[in-house]
Every structure is written in C-alpha cells, then in structure tokens.
Amino acid sequence: MSETGTESRPLVRQLPDPTTASNVRYNPSLEELREFAEPAETTTEFGSASYVSEVRSRSADLTKNAVDDDFTDRDHELVDDALDIAGDREMLCVDRLMGRHSEAAFCCRLFVPVEHARIAYAWASLFEPTDGRDPDLYTVHLPDYDETAIRVRPDTGVTTVLGTDYIGEAKKSFLRLYMYRIKQQGGLGLHAGSKRVRVRDADGELQTVGQVFMGLSATGKSTLTSHGCWLEEPEDAAMLQDDVCGLLSDGSVAGSEGEGLFIKTIGLDEDEQPELYEAATTESAILENVAVDDDGTVHFDEDRYTSNSRAIIRRDELESADEEIDLDRLDQVFFITRNPLMPPVAKLDEEQAAVAFMLGESIETSAGDPSRAGESIRVVGTNPFIIGPEGEEGNIFHELIDILDADCYVINTGYLGEQSKDIGVTESVTILTEAARGTIEWSHDEQMGLTIPDSVPGLDIEDYYVPDHVDDYDDALAELRAERRDYLEQFDQLREEIKAAVY
C-alpha cells in the first residue's frame, strides 16, 4: 500500500499562515500558554500545573497512516475537515525544533484550539523554540472533534489528531514522522533512550561509551537512561535522550527532544528514582492525570485517574541530563524486556540482536492498551510507531549493527520465573555500569542457549540463574522458542539468517 495518487492534495496550503491569520495566536511564550490553560489547571503544592484529560492513553487502534493503511474517501475527508477547521476556529499555533543534528532536525508546527491550550503548553515544553525556519511537519489537534481518528500523511508531513485530548498523541504525531524521515535518509528511527558513560575500564583507563536503551513505555527506559550510576568524577553518566532517537549510518545517534521528558509517574519513588522525582516536584513540571487533591497535594502512588499518569519535566532540572542531545558514537544497545524466562542480562551476536529487535518482547502497559496492561506482548523494535514494512526495519538494524560493530544485550528489568526473583534498579544499573567498564566475564550457557555472565562486580549473579527459578524450564524455553519462530515467520521481508537465529 502506498500514497500513490494523494500527492496532489494541497494539504499544507489549506492551513492558515499563522503570521497573518486573524484567528491564530502564533508562538505564545510558555508563560502565556499556561495562562491560556488556566481554566483547566489545578495548581500543585509545588506550584506546577496539573491537568486531567478525558482520554488517558494513545488511541492506537484508531490510528492510520497512508503508507501502511488504505486511505478511504472518508479518511481524506477527515484530514481535509481538520485543516479547514484550523482556518476557522480560534487557534494556538506553536513552532518547535525537533532535533539538532544536521541530518536529523525538523521544524514542527502544532495547531490546537485555544480552549485546549494545555496540550500546546505541555508539547511546547518538550522541544526547543524555533529558529525561524519553515516547518517540515504539521499536526492539527482537535480534541473536541465528534469522531476519534488519528490520520497520518507521511508524504506531506501532516497529521490530524481528532477526538482525543491525550497529550501523548501530539508528541508522537511528530516523533512518528521524525523516525520515518530518518529511515528515508538511510538511518533508523528508534524508540529508545541514549546515554553517554565515562568509566574506568579493567586497566584503569578512562573511556567513553555510548549506550542506547530500547524499550516500551513503563519498562524502565527512563529510569535506566537518566540514572547517574553512582559514579564520581572523573567518571560520570549523562542522559542525552529519553524517548526517540535516530541511529544514523555514521554511527552517531541523533536526539529529538531538547527541552523536556514525558515520564510515567505512577509509583515514582524518591529513593529509587531520586532525579526523576525531584524534577517532577518542581514548579516547571506539568502533570497529566496524576492524583492531585484540590489543595494541591500530589499522590504519585495513586492511580486515581489511570496508571498511565505522566509528567513533563525539564531537562535542566536533571543533574544527569547533558547539554547535548546527540550521541557521537553508538557502542552498546540494550533491549529492555520483562520476559520472565530471560536472565538479568545476556550478550547477543549480530543476528540474535536483530531477533531481539524484531521480537520486542515486553509487557503491555497502560500507555498502550490499558485493558491489556501486564500481558506479554511483542512489538517490533519496541516501537509502536513504525511506518513501513516492519521486516525491513529488522534488516536495516542488522546492517547498521554489523557496520558499526556495536555490542548488543537483552536486559530484564522485571523478574524471573513466577515472580520468584525480582530484578531491581540496583541490579540493572550495576550491570549497565560494568558492561560499560568491560569487567563482566561471559560464557555460553548450553541449557539457556545464551551468552550470560559468569561474574558481575558488585552482584551475586549466580543467584539470578533462570533455570533455578522456573519449573520445567526446558519445556518452557522450548515453547518460547517455538512461539518466537512462528512470530518471525509473518515478516516476509525479514532475512532468513535472522529468522534462523532465534534464541
């Protein structure tokens, strides 16, 4: 399926020029946007703004893009109607820059009705102000439209978000197309966080390691990416990106969000996640669907509205956040899973890494489908925003990893077996730090069919041997491998050597 025959539709020309249109307020400041949103605000005990939306997760099943889905006349009518409305209603128009890399930077233009200013306020807090360039990507977000439908036109860079007031739809409308444009340029968009770690290796020499973390929302991606790893100078760990990156053919990893992070807050723990907690309790934070009392008291541990409660926090409130958002060189990739048959960490060869990319094994979260939260799922690239054939993405990933000679791992941030052994933040961060140092000793385990650690400094890794925590482990593993093989067979474009590497 393709967009053949739709290129002539003058979508962008239907949108009003915000610099001259009388119905558009163009590029208000963040302070002005918050003022517009004041009727919907509850002010927290920290002085920050808190909002409650009617829709509290993405409407994935009501999203179509014109590359992978057949657009009917009705789909085109929805897009045209949204653009016409943007020319008639009193609208806010905000331009922001997504990315800084010379090959992966785009100007994004968001239209939102004034009465839904909180969406513009939150979205604008994630990205850097425009430098005046013409927009590359456009979104018209109409929360009160009488039908819920998200329609994406990759050819013109236009997305219409209709009938939902969830802030995440505005954010992902641009990041989805960011990843697609990077793929068109020969790279690969990743639903991933990126981090630069400077550590002493086994010989005591200081080295810099670029790490990328691929995982679904609420599986620990933000926690691991932002964690300082308890390092002291001259060692350090710096978060570059939290959510979406672009892996380029030269081995660099381009960032997208320059100003903020959109983090999950349910269960946010001051002891386990001190930096994220501190940032979420500043005046600059923006809370969405967090339990906040009328007097402003915040309850991060309460799912009063949804377990998919969120906060937009400022990068400059995070000590671990670097001024840069681009990673010079990719050295290590970590696939975050919650599969209870997976060890705390395993080292993968290139084909196994491509398998891990295609499997995208995790658990469903309330950010995706609240009705299935906690169920085991598979999402290619742990990226539910792929445009184009998914098998093609696996092939591209395999090629890039081969060229760049990056080390790849699968890391379990959940538990082993029937919840008999938890893997906490301390264990995961220890593994990440020692992997960067190169001090983990590895060996191939015949029973598991994986390369797993013999030793990890600071961790009794033998206590986490999966077969010791799973009844009938061999049968369970055989069933899992069979499921994985069947799953990969659906991707016709995926190379056979990748399918054959199921672990």
Automatic annotation (TrEMBL):
Pathway: Carbohydrate biosynthesis; gluconeogenesis. Residues 470-497 form a coiled coil. Keywords: ATP-binding, Coiled coil, Decarboxylase, Gluconeogenesis, Kinase, Lyase, Nucleotide-binding, Pyruvate, Transferase. The keyword Cell division does not apply. It catalyses: oxaloacetate + ATP = phosphoenolpyruvate + ADP + CO2. Residues 1-26 are annotated as: Disordered. It comes from the Archaea. Its EC number is 4.1.1.49. One of its GO terms (cellular component) is cytosol. Pfam families: PEPCK_ATP. Residues 17-26 have a biased composition (Polar residues). One of its GO terms (biological process) is gluconeogenesis. One of its GO terms (molecular function) is kinase activity. Belongs to the phosphoenolpyruvate carboxykinase (ATP) family. This is phosphoenolpyruvate carboxykinase (ATP). It comes from Natrinema versiforme.
